[in-house]
Amino acid sequence: MSAFELKNLDECLEKHLPAEELKEVKRILYGVEQDQTLELPASASTTAKENGFEIKGYRFSARPEQLRKPRLVRVGAIQNSIALPTTAPIGEQREGIWKKVKAMIKAAAEAGCNIVCTQEAWTMPFAFCTREKFPWCEFAEEAEKGPTTKMLAELAKAYNMVIVHSILERDVEHGETIWNTAVVISNSGRYLGKHRKNHIPRVGDFNESTYYMEGNTGHPVFETEFGKIAINICYGRHHPQNWMMFGLNGAEIVFNPSATIGRLSEPLWSIEARNAAIANSYFTVPINRVGTEEFPNEYTSGDGQPAHKQFGPFYGSTYVAAPDGSRTPSLSRCQDGLLVTELDLNLCRQVKDFWGFRQTQRLPLYAESLQKASELDFKPQIVREQ
Amino acid sequence: MSAFELKNLDECLEKHLPAEELKEVKRILYGVEQDQTLELPASASTTAKENGFEIKGYRFSARPEQLRKPRLVRVGAIQNSIALPTTAPIGEQREGIWKKVKAMIKAAAEAGCNIVCTQEAWTMPFAFCTREKFPWCEFAEEAEKGPTTKMLAELAKAYNMVIVHSILERDVEHGETIWNTAVVISNSGRYLGKHRKNHIPRVGDFNESTYYMEGNTGHPVFETEFGKIAINICYGRHHPQNWMMFGLNGAEIVFNPSATIGRLSEPLWSIEARNAAIANSYFTVPINRVGTEEFPNEYTSGDGQPAHKQFGPFYGSTYVAAPDGSRTPSLSRCQDGLLVTELDLNLCRQVKDFWGFRQTQRLPLYAESLQKASELDFKPQIVREQ
To answer: Using alpha carbons only, how large is chain A's radius of gyration in Å?
Structure first.
């Protein structure tokens, strides 16, 4: 591993490339031809500064239409490290994270955000690397009635903001089962619904299949005052079919709350959510935590290396991708941050009208093909020389 | 449009970034941590120099296994401009392109390539912008018995090389219908089979739906002496399901012969084929033509601009992506070129074993979901506040 740490890839390019080259590099790499900067209110910047997190603002525009007004929505994406050591009492750990994220939600409100989303399992350290059930399962809480949803519901109502948060869920009514779940709270402060992670990793230290099963909530799209939103949780971003079903159900913005580490997935990070935005003509918001987390007991990583106590670093790099293939720069790779992005949701339909992927996708062909491929005696279509 | 032309994005980064930053940028952007350079024989470089095309060599390695030997395959990808004005006689135009590409195939043989693939509709200018049927349909030829397949079959046998080429097909036996088709010629020199483009664009000047219909050949994988290969032609790269079916049928390398232009698709180019490599644990080889083509009669582009005669520039930028998410640099954006890449096909299974996407993809869920979404009375899964 290089000793040198790059805090932000985009800032590195901006620093070193001459203006003309930079402009072309940004167009080719990011699909960006104009200044994307969104001016943020001083109050939001002050809150960020006082609480020690980065805040960045960008915007995507759409062409004016004659029959529809612009549908401008501001989306806030929050990436953060944990607040207290993992040896602190569970309640205090959660309170500590609540406190720092509440300040970020306040800044999001000050920046005019209509929808905010957290990172995956945001109330806790990502302890699944340990394979220990205790005390970590104590972080699980009910999606609708748990303390975190309750706390956020008040903020949602006070700020008139939809809040999406991704937690470890305990389904008390159904056998105390544990799930990886995103909860949607309406700007009315009411619980709108939940979605459970569809694809569970079995890779590296992501021992999540030890804790919970594949989600059973389908691919719900939540119709909010600020657009139709969905959540593709973490490892689901590796599966184009998961992204596709949210699109077929009508999503305009799909959040991807994640927790992922550098050596494993970083070269994939800028590709997958952006490809999903392109293929499905919607906005995507991949969010990843930051920092390195240290656990009380040592564990091994199945990679031949000695036992250790650390997990990470999580590389942050939260960004937003648009249906036309353009994207924002990333937040920092190592610092807490709030990414505020103004979207014109009209862009989704405009890109559908222009590119036509929704019309050229031949759904019946693939429904039939996947059905055949699902059968035990599936014979792949292979051509051999006679 | 910027007056400044960037010949190659990768060379621009290499020129301006300090060594430490460049190393991290390459790791994050391209998933590359070691030197990828493949030394090429002097004869290949000489052929390239004499014939005025770029030649580059890269390699991907895999970990050593105990029970399987490395399965090293060299793949050649050819990008080129047309040779003569589009006003020249059709036969001469084709001969002109044959001549320059034959030299590139010779260089590929000298570089030890086992499989070579051309760009889309390689024997002709990309005249579909014009919507004129004549004389352009004269470029169409039979997949199995056409003059181009015949010419290439001799090279395939002489060089012991599988050749994939993408042409305008005329199906003489079935109503003289026209198709966009990739033909696979075995290294024995025999015709192995064909695949017809599954997804036909309706965007920009890509008026292909005026000429041919959606392909009816499914998603064949061709089992060759050098691995299992498939072809996703051009616009099919925007459809993750198309990529997926080649994977489910067992492909290890999927070529993407293309013809696409800058303002339309360039920010998507580095994303889609690479995402497919990741999602399906195979290698992808997106190939795009270069140059600007001028047609005899003016045509309009449906964009409010005056009628004109040019189509392009096609931006080249051919590259190879690996199942682990890494990729090679691109060929030039504006010059003929041959990209030689050595792959260890063992990497496909290794990545499947490591990441497990093939096991976590929940095919039956999506077979059922796509079936429902295909029905006329499909009701999207939408959650609304009561």
So the answer is: 21
Q: How do residues A165-189 score in pLDDT, each as one tens digit?
A: 999 999 999 999 999 999 999 999 9
Q: A286-309 pLDDT, tens per residue?
A: 999 999 999 999 999 999 999 999
Q: Is residue B301 part of a domain?
A: yes
Facing residue for A203 by CB, picked from B326, B354, B365: B354
Q: What is the DSSP string of A24-39?
A: HHHHHHH---S--B--
Facing residues of A195 across strands? A182
Residue B17 distance to chain A (closest CA, Å): 6
CATH number, position A185: 3.60.110.10
CA atoms of B130 and B86, how far apart (whole Å): 12
| Whether B203 contacts chain A with CB within 8 A | yes
Contacts with A305 (C-beta within 8 Å, 6 or more apart), sequence order: none
CA distance, residue B262 to nearest chain A CA (Å) = 9
Tell me if residue A146 falls in helix, strand or coil: coil
**Residue A314: strand pairing partners:** A261, A291
Q: Which residues of B are catalytic?
A: 120, 197, 234
Is residue A342 a part of any domain in this protein?
yes
A286: in domain: yes
Number of domains, chain B: 1
Distance CA A176, CA B82 (A): 67
Query: Is residue A2 one of the residues assigned to a domain?
Result: no
Is B248 within 8 Å of A364 when comparing Cβ atoms?
Answer: no
Separation of alpha carbons A281 and A348, rounded Å: 5
Could A383 and B219 be called an inter-chain contact, meaning their C-beta atoms sit closer than 8 Å? no
Q: What domain range includes position B191?
A: 35-374
Contact by Cβ (8 Å): B114, B226: yes
CA–CA gap between residue B369 and residue B56 (Å, rounded): 44
Check if A234 is active-site. Answer: yes
ipTM: 0.95
Q: Residue B173 burial (CB < 10 Å; 0-12/13-18/19+)?
A: exposed
